[in-house]
Amino acid sequence: MRKQLHYILFIVLFIIYAACYQDVLSHIIFYQEQHHLFLFSTAYFTHSLHTEGWMSWLTDFLIQFFHLPLLGSCLMAGILSSVYLLVRFIIYRITGKRDLLQLALLPSLYLFLQTVSADASLVPVVSVWVSLLVVAVFCWLLSPWLRKLHRLIPDISLKPAVYWAVTVIVLLMYGGGTFYKFLQKYDIREYRMLKAEQAVKERNWDDVLMQTEKYLKRQANNQLIFYFRNMALYHTGQLLDHLLDYPLNMGVKALYFPWNSDSRESEYGHFLYEDLGYINEAQRWEFEAMVVWGETAPHLLNLARYNVVNKRPEVARRFINLLKQSLFYRKEAEQLEAVLHTGKVPGLRAPLADVKESSARFANVLNIGPELQYLCEKDSTNRMAFEYLMCDLLLSNQVVRFVDNLKYMRHFDYPRMPRLFEEALFMYRSGVGEEEFSKTGYSVSPETEERFKHYYQLYQQKDMRKLRLEFGNSYWYYLNFVSPYGNKIIAR
To answer: Using one digit for the tens of pLDDT, what is the confidence trace for 71-85?
Structure first.
């Protein structure tokens, strides 16, 4: 069994690594694949060699297989665990002795720890792996000469009991140390954010809610998490009921990303605009993201889709032709090519495609409010634009404008007035009086009035714990204690 120990350790390492990349490190596989694209073309090969080197080219070649998560996990596990075998082989060929302290494990474990962060490059891992392969081949070819060195190295022989005791202690030390460093380096928040992003791209809104809820239970005030969560709440029909389940201290920024020329944020802005049907703005965000992150599959696919619906087939063809040179995105590229001249892409809404503007219109990149207003005016049936406009107005304390735009609600089949809306209407009525409020044609239910009486009673008693528990998700509580714009209603 002593002679077969290195094979046993190789298998154990492979299983542990593969399990990690399939579970707690699955976001690494996703992130790396989404930020690299390998193309089977001479131009791509030449460009890669001149800009990043052939090792980067080889790394991208391997990363393309991460498109299939199980294959990607096994590939990473195979590379890292084979590093151990290669180092062990080199040690044995040079010294002629077994690795009693299992030192060959250390490079493999070290490289594994370097992949725990999503931003970590895999080029060093692949470079070490290839270098060890080359060294191993040379050691094999030079075996007759290396054997002469074996006589110069003293042989250390241990009794079986001592050998196994030393081996177990060493393995426990290496395993315990690696686990400790792994816990230090591992970022569960990064995992949740990337898994939420993956679920958004897959349109798996229930999973988005699950990932964001788990994140918010540990830590609040993450704009990206709220951004994803609110999109998922809308798509599951829960936005108006659960918008304020968590304190939105950032106000309207929980709904969208204003343009800040931030390289990281550039990847996310297009999601909301695409769902709103505001394709021109979605395309601007995606193009900016491609400038930052390069011609990766997500950006090329989206830019091709957006240009198809904007009836720019030749521009779309440029992105499609690139994707056709890839291994795993060829089919999607061919599907887009089939609808190139139709102006329609399955699953993509473009309600403004046929709107003719009398003059040029420039989007407000800092405040989504005017854009939502514009969408509602141009297409009163755009439910997402309506709900986001209402939430934007409420979160910015603009209750008067909220009431003015409530007229768009008649275009949708709400079974009842949403609780959040009624709470805002109650505040509006309290401010303008019964006579002015009656002109709006809206009413406040007796249940809402009774709830406010109880809220006000707790407020007067200054029972903040009970107030937060019972009314923390109400508009009244948001306006009084959470809103970053103060606790006063903004008239206009």
So the answer is: 999 999 999 999 999
